[in-house]
Structures are given as C-alpha cells and as structure tokens.
Amino acid sequence: MVISQADWEAMVAHAQEDAPNECCGYARLSDGRVDEVFRAKNLRASPYGYELDPQALLAANDLDDEGHGVAIYHSHPRSAAEPSQTDINLAHYPHWHYLIVSLAGEPQVRAWRIADGRVEEEDIVVE
C-alpha cells in the first residue's frame, strides 16, 4: 500500500487529537494507493476500542460498491500498531485493509489484512 506523507500525517494528527481515546476513520484506495482519508466519529469514545459511526461505515461501503479499495484506520494510543483480539473479531470485511496508528513512542502506522481470524501484515510505502 502506498500512502502520501500528508495522508499519513493526517491519520497521526487525528490519533493525537483524539487521545487518550482511540480515533477511527477510513480511506479510499485506487490500485493500492490511498487517494483520500476521511475522519469518522468513534461512537465508543474509549481508549480501549472503536466503533465507526454508521454514516462513515455506509460511506466506506459505498466506496467498496463503486470499485474502490477501502481501508479502515484506528489508533492505539498506548499500545503497538498490531491488531488486538477485539480488532480481529470486529474485522468483518476480509477484502478491506486495516490500518493501525500507534502513539506508543514515535507515531507508527502499520497495515493489516484480517480474514477469518488470520492476520497478515502488509507493507506501507510513504511517499
């Protein structure tokens, strides 16, 4: 996956602004490249989990229906950018990408594919 420096910074800024709670949002992809990042509201408003607001989830599904790639992002304010068991359980879209922004130490963004409980990391290239 390729992401611009500006979009990477936008996700990190969202995570920092919503800390200590987790933030969440989604991104539109074309040919493995992030085209645009969209903030969403975390309905849980919690440092321990996220729930994308219904409008954001519908918009992400619309992007999918239109043939775009979709990535869901959320933050881990105090832990590594690795999917928790809760993240794995909530990953209902096996063809979507899942980005996690960690604020534990220097900000880090990692990408994952999660399908049927299997977790595989994907490379991210920041340009």
Written account of the structure:
The protein is α/β, with parallel strands linked by helices and 127 residues long. The chain has a single domain (2-126), classed as 3-Layer(aba) Sandwich (Cytidine Deaminase, domain 2). Helices cover 24% and strands 36% of the residues. The chain has helices spanning 5-18, 54-65, 85-89, and strands spanning 2-3, 24-30, 33-40, 69-76, 97-102, 108-115, 118-122, 125-126. Strands 3-2-4-5-6-7 form a six-stranded mixed β-sheet, with helices on both faces. A two-stranded parallel ribbon has the order 1-8. The N and C termini lie close together (11 Å).
General form: globular
Remind me, CATH topology? Cytidine Deaminase, domain 2
> Which strand-content bin applies to the residues?
35-45%
Structural class: alpha/beta
Tally of DSSP β-strands: 8
Question: Measured on Cα atoms, how large is the radius of gyration?
Answer: 13 Å
Please give the CATH class: Alpha Beta
Number of helical segments? Answer: 3
The appropriate CATH architecture is 3-Layer(aba) Sandwich
- As for the number of domains, it is 1
Biggest sheet architecture: 6 strands, mixed
- Series of H and E elements: EHEEHEHEEEE
